[in-house]
Amino acid sequence: MISYRLNSRIGAVVFTAILAMPAAAQTIAITGGKVYPVSGPLIENGTVIITNGKIVAVGANVPIPAGAQRIDATGKIVTPGFVDASTQLGVQEIAAVNDTRDMSARGKDNIAAAFTVWEGLNPNSVLIAPARKEGITSFVVVPTGGLVSGQAALVDVVPGTTTDMIVRSPVAMVAEVGDPQSAGLGSRGELIVKLRELLEDTKFFQTHRDAFDRAQTRPFVASRLDLQAMIPVVEGKLPLLITVNRASDIDAALRLARNYNVKLMISSGAEAWMMADKLAAARIPVLTGAMNNIPEGFASLGQRQENAGLLRKAGVQVALIGNAGGGDEEAFNVRNLKQEAGNAVSYGMTWDEALRAVTLAPAEFFGAADRLGSLQPGREANVVVWSGDPFEFTTRAEHVLVRGREYNEKTRQDLLIERYRNLPGTHNTPPPR
Amino acid sequence: MGTAACTVRTPTTTPSPARDSAQADVGRGGTSTPNADPFPSTYVPFPSRTTVVRNVNILTAAGPLIRNGAILLQNGKIAAVGTTVDAPADALVIDGSGKYVTPGIVDDHSHLGVYAAPGGNALSDGNEATNPATPQVWAEHSVWPQDPQFPRNLAGGVTTLQVLPGSANLIGGRSAVLKVVPGRTVQAMKFPGAKYGLKMACGENPKRVYGGRGGPSTRMGNVAGYRAAWIKAVDYRRKWDKWNADHKGDPPARDLGNETLAEVLRGNILVHNHCYRADEMAQMIDIAHEFGYQIRSFHHGVEAYKIADLLAKEGIAGSIWADWGSFKMEAIDAVKANMALVDHAGARVIVHSDDPSGSQRLNQEAAKAMEAGAEIGIPVSEEQAIKWLTINPAWALGLDDRIGSIEKGKNADVVLWTGDPFSVYSKPEKVWIDGALLYDRLDPSEQWRTDFELGFVPFNRN
């Protein structure tokens, strides 16, 4: 159904989808599996019915429509597709090759609020298919660098254009707190001052736009488009997703958010466990991992693998993201999200909480729980049938459906293995078909 | 926040085998070095007590899984292993029901101590990036024994590390082979009698680092650089061989860099070559043939699966990541089945880390690679995969006669896992080195905290 063509000049595999879109009334029934809707209790021997790309029924005694295509999930586990809540997938192909990197903007004085990172997203990135193959069906593409990095978007892992992929944009404004050097500033305190100045200028700009357009305002800390992009943040409509690690920096961010009525989310949060009660009280969600215990800088001395579990126990909402810092986890290795979840369980999260932290929790954080993250009627049919415990290494994602369509195309890695599996062999020629 | 007991225990006074290592290091063909061991190991085993673990599954790395078996650790050695063992009456008996025992994990690609946490310029001591060939530098002179990454690696079941210089240079310098034990000095951590390794690096890193400052700026420049260094080393060795034979006149002038390279040519130092691409590995093999040395292991070997047959024929190991890739051009052909394919071709596979986090979960990295093999119809047994973590890297360090497997008489470097080590839910519960319990997840008093952690790190690991 899908043909592969090797473009030898650029050395990239071009996937040409010749498959027509799903037939209008196509119905799929996933039967017999252990179904984890996440939004509700486990259903032993459950059925999931999908029509036209949406889930239409989930339950134990659901009638199967005549003519439905069946996927037998007996003895298997059915979950919502996994959501990576923070990645550069699609905007970074090869980290050390500059013209494949599109996750950062220069901005003005390290403020790039207007930067919409998804404009640079490449739906043909060869790293996307390996992620989907291992059960990632949605991800949040997040800009990096500077003081205000730009805006993030939530996308589904479907072929086509970026427009086809986008579920919701923007889903957050991204900023760095506690890394003054990255923001081009002299100290932590100055960084907070700079953010305050930006928030105040945004409010002023919001109410004095006419004067601005007539060039009758004082100079602002940010450009017109950046200020405009910040308006939903000061209105409390668009979350400010800050990368922050040190407990005292989290505290400073909490004060800032309270004073300016900003809806805060925390990413990385190495020492968030030290602030767990305060984060829970302020209802601030945290995106963090469970595979890093290295005091890798003076802002991360309290980094520990129990972080996610401790936060959850204190009542903080948690989404799991890769945080061990190796092997291109920003893009290629988002597929290791399940390993992150397994380690979170190993370090104190319950299994159900870990599943929620890679499905419904991120969907909720980014305002898309009505679209994905759970198995409920009306949700997009982003569904994975796993051969066993999804967090375990011996488990395979046997069926991966995104918006009701199953994907099992070969990845670039599959093609390389076909070519080199038998040695010595046809090293420089494609394998026979 | 108590100091771990093991950091303050007094080591036993058993004489260190390191005292003999100056002699032990003199291999075939003499030496170019008046003193082969100027920084001798002062390691002595920590106090141990005779210990039996019973009812435990044992992955020996030397044969089939022993189900519900037993192991006896005595006087720092593995005294017995089998379905049952005879234990002295005073032995500490541990019930290992549902648990697993494996040999201690050996990571042959670490930068602990030379890129110590919490990082930054002050602790960046891994690349002497002042010249593309620096065989004269020794990693041990950069190692900070108080790097808080050491106890974290121990808690991940790692008992022996090869600390390598970085990969900025064509020839990066000597490695340090360390036991993952608390020590006030690096000498107290050095594995007695271990051979040194030599770090070499191919490809993008050297040409990137030196491209703007005198070269090499190309891969062909890299190769010219290796060959120029080896030409000098061959000459240096010849002069010393001649002087060693006749002792006529003054000995040749010493040169630290050439001393190291000459020891490689004599087989006394093992070559660990950072190399991603298949075509470059093949060229490095030709260079080794040209100058008469052996490459022990290619590190990273992202494309090892493309020349697995060549690695098998040459007897070169592949020290590989499970799934790292795409972060640079020479890493774009990374496949998860790399290890399984290389193993299947008959070459030695080693799971390496190059990473202070990854090194704590080398078992999980192996598990991912096993699954990737199974997916393409090359299943890898747990008995085989445990070798990737233990006896194979021990071989790469020339220590497979002392560590790396659960066999009678070997050093009692042993890990007790909470479950099957290839499960995401299993963790090391206890770790012994030379029979001494150096880590116990269940007992905070048996958890080593470095000096750095005191006050700075606001929690005790468990």
Q: Can you tell me about this structure?
A:
The complex is a heterodimer of chains A (433) and B (462). Chain A is α/β, with parallel strands linked by helices and 433 residues long. Chain A is built from twelve helices and 18 strands. In chain A, strands 3, 4, 5, 6, 7, 16, 17 and 18 form an eight-stranded mixed sheet that branches. Chain A has an eight-stranded mixed sheet with strand order 8-9-10-11-12-13-14-15. In chain A, strand 14 (286-288), helix 8 and strand 15 (318-320) form a beta-alpha-beta unit. Chain A starts with a strand and ends in a 13-residue tail after the last helix. Residues 1-24 of chain A have low confidence and may be disordered. Chain B is globular. In chain B, strand 1 and strand 2 (66-74) form a beta hairpin. Chain B contains 13 helices and 17 strands. Chain B has 462 residues and is α/β, with parallel strands linked by helices. In chain B, helix 5 (219-246) packs parallel to helix 7 (278-291) and helix 10 (362-375) crosses helix 11 (382-389). Classes of the chains: A alpha/beta (433), B alpha/beta (462). Chains A and B meet through helix 9 and helix 12 of A and helix 10 of B.
Structural topology:
The complex is a heterodimer of chains A (433) and B (462).
Chain A lengths: L1 E6 L4 E6 L9 E9 L7 E9 L2 E6 L9 E4 L4 E4 L1 E6 L40 H6 L2 E6 L6 E9 L5 H4 E11 L11 H20 L1 H5 L10 H11 L5 E5 L2 H14 L3 E5 L7 H6 L4 E3 L18 H7 L4 E3 L16 H10 L4 H7 L2 H6 L17 E4 L10 E6 L2 E3 L4 H9 L13
Parallel strand pairs in A: 3-6, 3-7, 8-9, 11-12, 12-13, 13-14, 14-15
Antiparallel strand pairs in A: 1-2, 3-4, 4-5, 7-16, 9-10, 10-11, 16-17, 17-18
Chain B lengths: L4 H4 L12 H4 L26 E8 L7 E9 L2 E6 L9 E4 L4 E4 L1 E6 L38 H7 L2 E6 L7 E4 L1 E4 L16 E6 L2 H7 L8 H28 L9 H10 L3 E7 L2 H14 L3 E6 L7 H7 L2 E4 L17 H7 L4 E3 L10 H14 L6 H8 L1 H6 L17 E4 L10 E6 L2 E5 L12 H4 L6
Parallel strand pairs in B: 1-4, 1-5, 6-7, 10-11, 11-12, 12-13, 13-14
Antiparallel strand pairs in B: 1-2, 2-3, 5-15, 7-9, 8-10, 15-16, 16-17
